[in-house]
Design a protein that fits this description.
Helix content is about 65%, strand content about 0%. The protein has about 100 residues and is mainly α. α1 (about 1-30) packs antiparallel against α2 (about 40-55). Keywords: Membrane, Transmembrane, Transmembrane helix.
Length: about 100
Amino acid sequence: MQSQLFYALVFQTLIPALLLHFPVSVMFGFVLASHGLGIYSCIISITISFYPAIDPLPNFFIISPYRKAAFRCFKRNWQSSEVNQVPPNSKNVVAPANVPAI
């Protein structure tokens, strides 16, 4: 369990470094060197907006109790969304209404 927590901590350290600190540092480096990033500066906004969605994911995939609980939740939702279908040759099939041709 401690190794799982360690790996989750490593990933939760790498995610902000890659999504927040590295892009902003590159942008500041270009600004200090008097070069603009132009259209590529929007990548920073994208990575910052992805951070809250991606940050908790390593916990769900690395730590086994969380992973089992998450998969049980998805499995339960997937099974409840299945619809029981009646075979087409069943007596419960309603015949189409006769619609006059126009």
